[in-house]
């Protein structure tokens, strides 16, 4: 059961809590578990061409809506390429990763909410100069992220 949703709220463009992926995506948490009663987390990410994540999995579902650019998503051993208006859904527990092919911007939805805190905490540790491999492992474990290795070619 989810906590009670605190109430309606609104954020303008470029508003949100600063966040980032360890590989370099610049993000804003647009809605977190605290604002949605745990229902979901929503991030906006801006990525340079060549940005990529590791292959990983976690116990929440994740979805992306591509606003600009082109991305290749590696999901359960298969590659999918999407551009503006494209949508990708990954159920909880499924191995996945992504690569930005053409500089872009995307929305990331996490259901239920909570793991968006991973990106907020990575940003904080990075800003403090404390994002070591051990710190990254600790942050990942707090949010149920299991690192599986580098993305395969594709």
UniProtKB/TrEMBL annotation:
<dbReference type="InterPro" id="IPR053146">
    <property type="entry name" value="QDO-like"/>
</dbReference>
<dbReference type="InterPro" id="IPR014710">
    <property type="entry name" value="RmlC-like_jellyroll"/>
</dbReference>
<dbReference type="InterPro" id="IPR011051">
    <property type="entry name" value="RmlC_Cupin_sf"/>
</dbReference>
<feature type="domain" description="Cupin type-2">
    <location>
        <begin position="52"/>
        <end position="106"/>
    </location>
</feature>
<dbReference type="Pfam" id="PF07883">
    <property type="entry name" value="Cupin_2"/>
</dbReference>
<protein>
    <submittedName>
        <fullName>Cupin domain</fullName>
    </submittedName>
</protein>
<dbReference type="InterPro" id="IPR013096">
    <property type="entry name" value="Cupin_2"/>
</dbReference>
């Amino acid at each position: 059961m989810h906590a009670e949703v605190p109430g309606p709220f609104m954020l303008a463009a470029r508003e949100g809590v600063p966040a980032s992926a360890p590989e370099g995506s610049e993000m804003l948490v647009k809605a977190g578990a605290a604002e949605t009663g745990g229902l979901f987390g929503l991030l906006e990410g801006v990525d340079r061409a060549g940005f990529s994540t590791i292959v990983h999995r976690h116990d929440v579902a994740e979805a992306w809506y591509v606003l600009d650019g082109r991305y290749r998503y590696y999901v359960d051993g298969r590659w999918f390429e999407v551009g503006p208006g494209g949508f990708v859904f990954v159920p909880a527990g499924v191995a996945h990763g992504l690569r930005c092919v053409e500089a872009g911007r995307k929305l990331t939805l996490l259901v239920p909410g909570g793991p968006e805190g991973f990106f907020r905490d990575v940003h904080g540790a990075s800003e403090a100069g404390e994002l070591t491999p051990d710190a990254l492992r600790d942050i990942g474990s707090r949010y149920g992220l299991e690192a599986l290795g580098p993305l395969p070619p594709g």
